[in-house]
Every structure is written in C-alpha cells, then in structure tokens.
Amino acid sequence: MALDAERVILGSYGKIYVDGIWQTNLNHLEAYVEIQKRELNLSGDDWVRHKKGPKKGTGTMSGFKVTSDMIRREFNKFEIISKLDDPEAYGYERIRLMNVMPDRVQLANWTAGEEVTEEIPFTFEEYELLDPIEA
C-alpha cells in the first residue's frame, strides 16, 4: 500500500513548551539521544563487539527573540515538552525532555533592519515519550 500523503506530519503544527508555557516565538526544535558504546575485543573472535554505555541528550531550539527570559534563566535547569499535532496525521506526539540545561546563553545577536533571532543549544538528562503516534 502506498503512503497516504495526508498522514505526513508537517512541522507547522509543532509547539514547544518550556516549564509548561507555550513558546509561540520559537519555531525550531531538535533533540537527540546518543549512546556511548564500549568496544570489546574478545579472544578467538575477529569481530569487535559493542556494549551499551551511558546516554547523552543534546538539542537546539530557536526562533524569534521577544523576551529576556533565557538570559534570566542563565544556566538553570528546566523542562521542554515537544508537541507535534498535525490534524491530518494519525495522532499527535508529545516528548518530555527533562533536566534541560543551556550550553550557552545568547546575550546579543542583532543586525539593523532584521528580525532578532535566538538559538539555544542545550543538553538534557532524560526523556519520556508521553504520547506516541500509532499507525
């Protein structure tokens, strides 16, 4: 069966919540979890084997600057909830990022005659899939 194009999720319906408050000025969010793998060289085996190690969560959110909220927060931890909710999709997805800490705080980044944007790279320590999308 071919893919139903109506079910493809558009990011236009994405929302970012920081500590429960919808950030209407932000229009981009990326979050990844990477796992560190330990390489094991075993006798009598010509393959390098791998054992799971610790995980690391990283991400970035960006959009238009409208307040000094991120400057005030400094490097204090907060929570992000990412929500994708395209009305034509099979449902919506919410992912909670916990213990989020900015990697850097943008104090100034502007050019005359242009909108001021803000980018916040961050790390996080755990995540939870609150609402998965089911086919």
TrEMBL record:
Species of the source: Biomaibacter acetigenes
Pfam families the UniProt entry points to: DUF2001
The name this protein goes by in its record: Phage portal protein
Superkingdom as given in the UniProt entry: Bacteria
